[in-house]
Specification:
With 389 residues, the protein is α/β, with parallel strands linked by helices. The chain has three domains: 1-84 and 276-308, Rossmann fold, CATH 3.40.50.720; 88-270, 3-Layer(aba) Sandwich (Rossmann fold); 309-389, ACT domain (Alpha-Beta Plaits, 2-Layer Sandwich). The protein is elongated. Helix 7 (173-178) links the parallel strand 7 and strand 8. It starts with a strand and ends with a strand. It has helices at 13-16, 67-72, 85-100, 103-111, 117-127, 148-159, 173-178, 189-194, 215-218, 238-247, 279-299, 332-342, 373-378; strands at residues 3-7, 24-27, 35-38, 54-57, 77-78, 140-144, 163-167, 184-185, 198-201, 225-229, 250-255, 268-270, 319-327, 347-355, 358-366, 383-388.
Length: 389
């Protein structure tokens, strides 16, 4: 059995190599695909074929994918969390240096100099006083969000000699183990902002993080502070940041999201969304999402899904595997088991996990599946999708 993959963007060959050509057909014009691979294409207005079993994004965020609508159809959405962490970390560190030493302003100053060597030398000596900066060791960096990227940023800044405060009430055990013991836990967002010379945000955009950085929190920061945003534009209230730059409360805003209002402001260094724009990050993201997509299609396993629970069940030899997505409501497993019992099938192993309003079940059964069984399972009220692997 082969799988058909629709690629909405150019995907790194390193990632495509993880999908064997004898089992996978991949292209931009695939009809009736089993799965979709995407990077930046906007899928919100796209008519997603009924054959689609999964969507994989070769990147960390999924704002360009209609996750809620796909969840209702029982379609998991996979991403590549952490695959671009080093790339973003390096850009955040670059942003700290750009702001601390006024690199962009001084570079522009030099580019605009005119005259012979003597005139330029005189202008340089007179003008460099405008670009006196500061060093990073001893200063305090606040890191909001300690996921894959936030942890790398915090650890790297600590190694640079900065005092690092971290805040993430939902930090995972895995990330906590990775975090340097030298990173101090902030008690709250207000505690972090009030003690920081610079703040960098690394959280997803949702209702709770929209305008997370606003005037109320900026006022808590030390005078002349630096703000860095390489997550999502709307996490920062732009009007408040520009007002803080005009008043001198902030000395610099370094971000990856240029807008008509911020891109020409003297206190703003706006980059063209370069966070994950390295060949290594693109390759890592493509390989990670290809691996997770393949495991799901071939074995029903789920890793790195933004809308489905993690699910890993070693396959029992000489069994048939059934994968079922359903609404997270009572007695679903009981009803499914009843259908299997009515077909005279014994359950060799079973895994049931839930996440929010969605549940997912993997079942290995002894013997051959009779015709019509999957259709009878799929007909159970609340089942969103069922298939045999």
């Amino acid at each position: 059995m082969g799988f058909r993959i629709l690629a909405l963007n150019t995907i790194s060959p390193k990632g495509l190599e993880r999908l064997p050509r004898d089992r996978y057909q991949i292209g931009s014009d695939i009809k009736d695909p089993d799965a979709i691979l995407v990077r930046s294409a906007d899928m919100h207005s796209m008519k997603i074929p009924p054959t689609v079993l999964a969507v994989g994004r070769a990147g960390a965020g999924t704002n360009n994918i209609p996750v809620a609508a796909l969840s209702k159809r029982g379609i998991p959405v996979f991403s590549a969390p952490g695959a671009n962490a080093n790339a973003v970390k390096e850009l955040v560190l670059a942003g700290l240096f750009l702001a601390a030493r006024h690199i962009c302003e001084s570079w522009q100053f030099v580019r605009e100099l005119q005259g012979d060597a003597a005139a330029i030398e005189t202008a340089v000596e007179q003008g460099k006083k405008r670009f006196v900066g500061h060093e990073l060791p001893g200063r305090t960096l606040g890191v909001v969000g300690l996921g894959a990227i936030g942890v790398e940023v915090a650890n790297a800044a600590h190694l640079l000699g900065m005092h690092v405060l971290g805040y993430d009430p939902q930090i995972t055990v895995q990330r906590a183990w990775q975090l340097s013991s030298g990173v101090e836990q902030a008690l709250s967002l207000d505690d972090l902002f009030s003690r920081s010379d610079a703040v960098t945000v690394h959280v997803p955009l949702d209702d709770s993080t929209r305008s997370l950085v606003n005037m109320q929190r900026i006022r808590l920061m030390r005078d002349g502070a630096t703000l860095l945003n390489f997550s999502r534009a709307a996490i920062v209230a732009e009007d408040d940041v520009l007002a803080a730059l005009d008043s001198g409360k902030l000395s610099a805003y370094v971000c990856d999201f240029p807008t008509p209002r911020c891109k020409d402001h003297t206190g703003v260094v706006a980059l063209p969304h370069l966070g994950a724009s390295t060949s290594e990050a693109e390759e890592n993201s493509a390989m990670m999402v290809a691996d997770t997509l393949r495991d799901f299609l071939e074995n029903g396993g789920i890793r790195h899904s933004v809308n489905f629970p993690e699910a890993a069940l070693p396959r029992v030899p000489a069994t048939a595997r059934i994968a079922i997505a359903n609404s997270n409501v009572p007695n679903m497993v009981g009803q499914i088991s009843t259908r299997l019992a009515e077909a005279g099938l014994n359950i060799a192993d079973l895994l049931n996990k839930s996440k929010g309003e969605v549940a997912y079940t993997l079942i290995d059964v002894d013997g051959q599946l009779p015709g019509g069984l999957i259709e009878r399972i799929a007909a159970i009220q609340g089942v969103l999708g069922a298939r045999v692997l």
